[in-house]
């Protein structure tokens, strides 16, 4: 187990390492750590140059580098700028470990950042230092659980339930009862989403935000590695085969669900396709293949049958014009992993289905 440092120790290390980075620049003559009246950040560096000019850099140091801490800093910067004693325009967020989302967020907002292992992006009017690839020395071996992986079934159920009613303000107990998952499991997911800045906290609960970013981040870790895929070929035209699936479902209690582009076209018809993706439970596969006169092939398939390892892909499926299709969430997760025009189709669904609030 790596040693855990105190807040003051992190602040000391951050100051020393930032000074070490900047003093290597040949045009820097002196670096001083200034006293300040402002209590809303950790320290200020006055960087003097050989030509007699100087720059002030305000630094915020946190023991964790999740996006929500960086976002809080960014939100307070406008407050700093309105104070005479905080009149600099250069800021740096420092933490032992900066997540990818945090780094991207800070970069997009024009804020410098640095971790305590030498990775950084520092920019001012005179300075540009960018360093990557240094192995992190401070992150604990037991990192926070990634709730976006395919194996996180409990999280998947909780997330899908929230996304099915994404405008709703939730409470932990309410969500626990609805999903039949423990209060602890729901609380852990809530904390995970809060750290990722995917929920907003209110006096009466919490609600999803940044849904587009949430889905795209989820899709990166969500894959079909735990699925069984059967590749098949049908001589039927794509529309005719999909109609035959609807007829087959009537006799089999709707056990086949259209996914991928077949589902996407029902939500937002933006992309043409020549291959059907469908989900089916394992006990129905053999009968389906026989009834639909499908031929299993090694390549050149136009029918992809996915047998999931759990029932989450079937959750919140919808019937649109008599076609049973995967939920908007499942459809987006599948399409964002598609190497073709999947991202285009996924973005169209996100825009249509999750557009009520700022995403």
The CATH topology of the largest domain comes to Beta Polymerase, domain 2
Taking the sheet with the most strands, its summary is: 7 strands, mixed
Shape: elongated
What portion of residues belong to β-strands? Answer: 15-25%
Structural class: alpha+beta
Placed side by side, the strands forming the largest sheet appear as 1-2-3-4-5-6-7
Poorly predicted runs? none
Shape-level CATH architecture of the largest domain: 2-Layer Sandwich
Helix content: 25-40%
Radius of gyration from the alpha-carbon trace, in angstroms: 26 Å
Structure in a nutshell:
This protein is an alpha+beta fold and 359 residues long. The protein has twelve helices and 16 strands. It starts with 6 loop residues before the first helix and ends in a 6-residue tail after the last helix.
Structure write-up:
The protein is α+β, with helices and mostly antiparallel strands and 359 residues long. It has three domains: 7-131, Trna Endonuclease, Chain: A, domain 1 (3-Layer(aba) Sandwich); 153-209, Arc Repressor Mutant, subunit A (Orthogonal Bundle); 228-353, Beta Polymerase, domain 2. Helix content is 38%, strand content 21%. The protein is built from twelve helices and 16 strands. The strands form four sheets. Strands 1-2-3-4-5-6-7 form a seven-stranded mixed sheet, with helices on both faces. Strands 11-12-14-10-13 form a five-stranded mixed sheet. Strand 6 and strand 7 form a beta hairpin. The chain is elongated and about 80 Å long. It starts with 6 loop residues before the first helix and ends in a 6-residue tail after the last helix. The model has no long low-confidence stretch (mean pLDDT 87).
């Amino acid at each position: 187990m790596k040693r855990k440092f105190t807040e003051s120790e992190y602040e000391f290390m951050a100051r020393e390492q930032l000074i070490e980075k900047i003093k290597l620049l040949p045009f820097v003559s002196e670096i001083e750590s200034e006293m300040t009246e402002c209590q809303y950040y950790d320290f200020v560096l006055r960087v003097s140059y050989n030509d007699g000019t100087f720059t002030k850099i305000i630094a915020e140091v946190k023991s964790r580098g999740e996006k929500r801490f960086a976002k809080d800093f960014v939100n307070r910067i406008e407050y700093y700028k309105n104070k005479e004693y905080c009149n600099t325009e250069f800021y740096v967020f420092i933490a032992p470990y900066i997540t990818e989302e945090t780094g991207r967020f800070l970069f997009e907002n024009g804020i410098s950042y640095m971790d305590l292992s030498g990775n950084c992006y520092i920019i001012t009017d005179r300075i540009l230092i960018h360093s990557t690839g240094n192995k992190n020395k401070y992150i604990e071996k037991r990192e926070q659980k990634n709730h976006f992986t395919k194996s996180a079934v409990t999280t998947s159920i909780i997330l899908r339930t929230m996304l099915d009613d994404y405008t709703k303000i939730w409470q932990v107990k309410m969500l626990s009862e609805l999903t039949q998952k423990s209060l602890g499991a729901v609380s852990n997911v809530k904390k995970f989403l809060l750290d990722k800045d995917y929920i907003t906290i209110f006096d009466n609960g919490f609600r999803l935000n940044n849904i587009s970013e949430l889905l795209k981040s989820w899709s990166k870790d969500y894959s079909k590695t735990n699925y069984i895929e059967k590749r098949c070929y049908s001589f039927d035209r794509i529309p005719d085969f999909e109609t035959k699936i609807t007829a087959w479902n009537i006799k089999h209690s709707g056990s086949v669900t259209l996914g991928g582009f077949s589902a996407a076209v029902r939500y937002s018809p933006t992309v043409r396709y020549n291959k059907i993706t469908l989900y089916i439970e394992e006990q129905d596969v053999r009968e389906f293949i026989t009834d639909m006169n499908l031929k299993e092939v090694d390549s050149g398939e136009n029918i992809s049958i996915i047998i999931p390892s759990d029932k989450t892909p079937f959750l919140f499926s919808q019937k649109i014009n008599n076609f049973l299709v995967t939920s908007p969430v499942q459809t987006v997760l599948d399409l964002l992993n598609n190497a073709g025009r999947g991202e285009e189709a996924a973005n169209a669904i996100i825009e249509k289905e999750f557009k009520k609030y700022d995403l």
